[in-house]
């Protein structure tokens, strides 16, 4: 990809036991966790492999210094997270980049043979797209566009983590 993809702002794991993963990462310095249980991703906000998605997941967020940590435990439905568990078991799932231009980053990824596997728009507060990087050693890459309301929430999570 030739686009400026910006910095890596998040590292995420998919887990079958979010409590255990929180405890493990807290032992390495992660701050307090903000849990979002049963987060719903419905057909109006998310697509998986080009089709409307309908799944729920427990999400937990924390920070280690300026790096956001995300934990995802699938609860219902089929998604990129259940696909990952089926393919690899629990583990490191993605790194997230925040490019200056979301649309250009997605176009350039597709032009280099990296199509979007799952994408969504969370009520105008955030757009995200996952591309498959497994062949190059990173299970998935998330490209994100973060709006001001989501930034405020992330500041809350970071303050709570400290």
TrEMBL record:
**Gene3D superfamilies found in the cross-reference section:** 2,3-Dihydroxybiphenyl 1,2-Dioxygenase, domain 1
Identify the domain of life: Bacteria
User: What name does UniProt use for this protein?
Assistant: Lactoylglutathione lyase
